[in-house]
């Protein structure tokens, strides 16, 4: 399954013990985020059920459900963030398998090891991250 690592690659200089530690951190993170998503999902269901049973007799009037709606959009927002993180975490695990972990996915330079230890799933070095965030802000029309 694991492809042989090319010996002439400009791979990141992360020692195997640190890499293993980061992999464990990523897997723990993956499980934690997945559990959080499950929890949010049942919270969302509970809110939906609440609306149908408790307020069913009020028909489609949602005026009184303002807080429920706010709660639902909060859950949706957090769910979106969690899905993002989950995708980043599995990408990072994939890069570990391909021997490209720790390299910026934009410019190919090694990512600062301290940055990796703080955020094991980051895909970009600080410079590229800032550029990408600026581009994102521009796309958002700011
Ligand atoms: Zn970069």
From TrEMBL:
InterPro entries: DnaK_N, Znf_DskA_TraR. Keywords: Coiled coil, Metal-binding, Zinc, Zinc-finger. Residues 23-50 form a coiled coil. A zinc finger (dksA C4-type) spans 104-128. It comes from the Bacteria. GO terms for molecular function: zinc ion binding. Residues 99-134 form the Zinc finger DksA/TraR C4-type domain. Transmembrane segments: none annotated. The keyword Coiled coil applies. The keyword Ribosomal protein does not apply. This is Zinc finger DksA/TraR C4-type domain-containing protein.
């Amino acid at each position: 399954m694991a492809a042989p690592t090319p010996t002439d690659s400009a791979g990141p200089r992360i020692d195997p013990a640190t890499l293993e530690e980061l992999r464990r951190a990523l897997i723990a993170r993956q499980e934690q985020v997945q559990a959080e998503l499950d929890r949010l999902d049942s919270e969302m269901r509970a809110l939906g059920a609440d609306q149908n049973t408790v307020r069913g007799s009020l028909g489609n009037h949602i005026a009184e459900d303002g807080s429920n709606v706010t709660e639902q959009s909060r859950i949706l927002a957090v769910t979106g963030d969690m899905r993002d993180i989950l995708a980043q975490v599995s990408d990072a695990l994939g890069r570990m398998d391909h021997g490209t972990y720790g390299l910026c996915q934009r410019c190919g330079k090694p990512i600062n090891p301290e940055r990796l230890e703080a955020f094991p799933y980051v895909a970009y070095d600080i410079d590229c991250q800032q550029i990408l965030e600026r581009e994102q802000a521009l796309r958002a029309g700011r």
